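Hey, resending since the last one bounced:
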Amino acid sequence: MTDEGLHKKFEEAVAYINSYTEPMPADLLLKLYAYYKIANKNYSDPGSKTPLINAFKANALIQAQHISAADAMRNYIELVDREIRNKKK
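The structure tokens again:
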């Protein structure tokens, strides 16, 4: 897949999640958060006002820190497809 194609699929997956209204498990949300931040090369601190939430987000980022931005996009897309889209069918 080309870089342009990967970016397009990633943006589509992000839009899908942003419009998704059903509850999602916390561990899935944390993985999506980490992949999104890495894919966008946004390494700023988690912005929650709750220290415990910040700790979980920071931990998710630490666990995924070894992957590239492109791999983070691929992982995000695969996670959305496997855990959200395919389970709705």
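The mean pLDDT is 93.

Sorry for the duplicate.
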